[in-house]
UniProtKB/TrEMBL annotation:
InterPro entries reported for this sequence: MoCofactor_Util/Proc, XdhC_CoxI
Pfam family, one: XdhC_CoxI
Species of origin: Thermogemmatispora aurantia
Domain named XdhC- CoxI: residues: 11-78
Protein's UniProt name: XdhC- CoxI domain-containing protein
Length: 105
């Protein structure tokens, strides 16, 4: 959280709402470990990372929705051998669960 905190504090000082996405579990190979965070301001500014880029557009889109409706979401990203790489997934073959919540403090 320390790496995203300065940006979150700046956005909140401007009166913006913010959502934070956190990697809560990893199975297999994944670019980021549990605890990795990505913050998103209501204007779409980002800070941090939950995947090294491969699934972050979907996480950012979800974060913007969570900012609007206040409903947290649990996301799962992974790819099996049966799936193709046109779908959102981790090219490294693992699975991650990302919890997205709005900060209301």
């Amino acid at each position: 959280m320390r790496d995203i905190l300065p940006d979150v504090e700046r956005w909140r000082a401007r009166g913006e709402r913010v959502a934070v996405a956190t990697v809560v579990s990893v199975a297999g190979s994944a670019p980021r470990r549990p605890g990795a965070k990505l913050a998103v301001s209501e204007k779409g500014e980002i800070s941090g990372s939950v995947s090294g880029g491969c699934v972050e557009p979907a996480v950012i889109e979800t974060a913007l929705q969570v900012i609007k409706d206040g409903k947290p979401q649990m996301l799962e990203f992974g790819i099996s051998e049966e799936e193709n790489f046109e779908q959102i997934g981790l090219a490294c073959g693992g699975t991650i669960h990302v919890f997205v919540e709005r900060l209301d403090w």
